[in-house]
Amino acid sequence: MAMESKSRKRRRPMANPAPLGLFGFAITTFVISCFNAGFFGVGVSDPINVVVTLGVFYGGLAQAAAGILEFSYGDTFAATAFTSYGAFWLSYAALFIPWFGVSEGYKSALGDTSHAQYVFSHAVATFLLAWTIFTYIMTVGSTRTSAALCTLFCLVALTLTLLTIGAFGHFHKVHRAGGVVGIITAIVAWYNALAELLDSQQKPIIRLPTGNLHQEATVENDDCD
Predict the structure, then answer these.
(1) Whole-prediction pTM value?
(2) Which of 12, 24, 109, 186 could covalently link to 30 via disulfide, CB atoms 3.0 to 4.6 Å apart?
(3) How far apart are CA 159 and CA 151, in angstroms?
(4) Is there a contact between 54 and 65 (Cβ–Cβ < 8 Å)?
(5) How far apart are alpha carbons 93 and 97 in whole angstroms?
(6) Considering only CA atoms, which of 66, 117, 118 is closest in space to residue 89?
(7) Could you list the residue range(s) of the whole structural domain that residue 100 is in?
């Protein structure tokens, strides 16, 4: 038992995976939102190859890995959020990777026609709708975390809502609005990531306020004790 306790003391505490997950989400969201908003000389009709690579490796694999590590942390909300949104980026990227044959499947079944493109675009819109519903559910859960994180989920929900409406109705202005809100969402995600990163350091140069939303509940529990 003595040897076991000494070995435990020598172990370093596990690093906080939250900054990795938040940075992966922020950067991927920022890049795709630039396409959706038509910023920096890119537009909706341009190839999204860069977004696909980010969606696979950083927004997808890295963020999902952060979510899996959050299970070890015992943080169910963060684990669910990071793993789910990591899977979101991976699945979204798969829609546009020829090897998966998603869009080609619609063409082979319906022919290379405008109707096939219409059905595929509405299928993507349904995909976005499902993730919009999921995000609103997670937004409810975020009300017990921090004001900064809750703000992030509200913006993600708004972004996906606009993109879903734009996809179903082919409303280009609504789609571009979703891109603009998505860029703001990425900035807020960067803020949350930096706050987590600084808070994980032993002697941070500064601490960014995030606004603890569950402090009142903790005080009530302490009073009950």
Answers:
(1) 0.85
(2) 186
(3) 12
(4) no
(5) 6
(6) 66
(7) 16-202
In a domain, 211, yes or no: no
Token pair of 86 as six digits: 């990591």
Does a structural domain hold residue 5?
Answer: no
Residue-wise pLDDT tens digits, 57-110: 999 999 999 999 999 989 999 999 999 999 999 999 999 898 888 877 776 666
Number of domains comprising the chain: 1
Please check whether residue 2 lies inside any domain of the structure.
no
pLDDT tens-digit series, residues 124-158? 999 999 999 999 999 999 999 999 999 999 999 99
> How far apart are the C-alpha atoms of 37 and 221, rounded to whole Å?
46
What the block records as the tokens of 180 is 């603009």
Residue 132 domain-assigned (yes or no): yes
Q: Which residues contact 213 (CB under 8 A, 6 or more apart)?
A: 143, 144, 145, 146, 147, 150
Tokens describing residue 75? 């943080």
> Which neighbouring-strand residues pair with 212?
146
